[in-house]
Design a protein that fits this description.
This protein is α+β, with helices and mostly antiparallel strands. Helices cover 55% and strands 15% of the residues. The chain contains eleven helices and nine strands. It has helices at 2-11, 57-67, 80-90, 94-102, 164-171, 174-177, 181-214, 228-245, 249-257, 265-331, 346-367; strands at 15-17, 24-26, 37-44, 47-48, 70-76, 108-112, 115-125, 138-147, 151-157. A seven-stranded mixed β-sheet has the order 4-3-5-9-8-7-6, with helices on both faces. Strands 1-2 form a two-stranded antiparallel sheet. A hairpin with a 2-residue loop joins strand 6 and strand 7 (115-125). The longest helix is centred in the C-terminal third of the chain and has 67 residues, at 265-331. It is rod-shaped, with a radius of gyration of 35 Å. 32% of the residues are buried.
């Protein structure tokens, strides 16, 4: 514990007492709201407290500590300097702060003293007219959540995954929002998993389209193996999708099964539904991966079979052409004593013999399926 306190002290700016009740604020922080702060609001009894002007984080903290409720601060890609004041104000663990600033984290749930740190990977489906080897199918982002007794902080990375609409929906449901920060955590988890479901349906359509084209009998004129690039690109996008879904299942199960002091018992029941939906999405994504493997193998097998057919045709025509080549080669030699060399009907007889032999070979090869 002493080591944790030392680490926290290393990243926590010096504080100055502001009120008689011991409330503090970050003395090194500018009164103006940081450019990384998307929204900052105080909620009491499920309703947003309107102050007439935009609140800065330390002003919101003052209101919460004076009158109760909780503060929800939303940030988008903050720098270390922009986030350090907020981290110090709420006593966030330095390891979690580092993860939130640097991003590119694996979905996870970690507990630090009196706060929970949760990482979600957001997935957005990229619309495209036609899938090709360079198409981007899914685009990922991240949402980091700090859940405390009287605060909730979201740190978002990436151009997708805005939480503005989600915040408005929660504000329209004061009864749910009155449950505190854990209600916001559940809403974000549910929002992220709902996004997974929508993306999974769209990816399923892409896979169906590729599967139909690979096995379509009308594509005989298409270049050999022309679908392999598209299949491989789609497989890479599904792999990125799987990296977002699979690691999140365990944290959702923990939130739904293990009692936690910061999670309202009524809200914990709803995490079971999120975990169930996430498990179904994971099964879908794993199925996508296996199906794409099968489609890719089938496509490569088709290309191999087509190449074998081409080689048989080439070999068959080479065998047919070998007959006149041999005859012409023999009678092209300059020997004085050759059979039928001076016979009047020798030339048409040799031509007729050559044509008959070639036709016989052609008929035999075609009957055996080589031509």
């Amino acid at each position: 514990m002493s080591m944790i306190r030392d680490l926290r002290a290393a990243v926590r700016p010096s504080r100055v007492s502001l009120r008689k009740d011991g409330g503090t604020y970050d003395a090194t922080r500018s009164p103006a709201a940081s450019s990384a702060v998307v929204d900052c609001a105080v909620y009491r009894d499920g309703r947003r407290i309107e102050t007439g002007t935009a609140l800065t984080p330390h002003e919101a903290v003052r209101l919460v500590r004076r009158d109760g409720g909780f503060v929800w601060i939303g940030l988008h890609e903050p720098t270390e300097a922009e986030f350090s004041g907020i981290a110090g104000e709420f006593g966030l663990h330095p390891l979690a702060v580092e993860d939130a600033v640097q991003a590119h984290q694996r979905p996870k749930l970690e507990r630090y003293d009196d706060s929970l740190f949760t990482v979600f990977k957001t997935i957005h489906y990229v619309e495209h007219d036609q899938l090709d080897a360079n198409s981007e199918v899914v685009e990922s982002g991240e949402v980091m959540c700090f859940t405390g007794r009287d605060f909730f902080i979201t740190v978002r990375h990436g151009g997708q995954g805005s939480l503005r609409a989600l915040r408005h929906r929660l504000q329209d449901d004061p009864e749910l929002l009155a449950k505190g920060p854990s209600a916001v955590l559940h809403a974000i988890a549910d929002h992220v998993v709902d996004g997974y479901i929508a993306v999974a349906d769209a990816v399923q359509d892409d896979i169906d389209e590729v599967e139909t084209e690979v096995f379509s009998p009308g594509r005989k004129g298409a270049p050999r193996g022309s679908d392999a690039g598209r299949i491989y690109q789609l497989k890479r996008e599904v792999l990125e999708f799987k990296r977002a879904v699979s690691p999140l299942l365990r944290p959702m199960q923990l939130l739904s099964e293990r009692p936690m002091r910061l999670i309202d018992p009524d809200i914990q029941k709803y995490f079971r539904d999120v975990a169930d939906h996430l498990a179904r999405v994971q099964e879908q994504v794993l199925g996508f991966d296996e199906l794409l493997n099968s489609i890719l193998q089938a496509n490569l097998a088709q290309a191999s079979v087509a190449q074998n057919e081409d080689m048989r045709k080439i070999t068959s025509w080479a065998a047919i052409i070998a007959v006149p080549t041999m005859v012409c080669g023999v009678y092209g030699m300059n020997f004085d004593h050759m059979p039928e060399l001076h016979w009047r009907y020798g030339y048409p007889v040799i031509l007729g013999f050559t044509v008959v032999v070639c036709l016989g070979i052609h008929r035999t090869l075609k009957r055996n399926g080589w031509l």
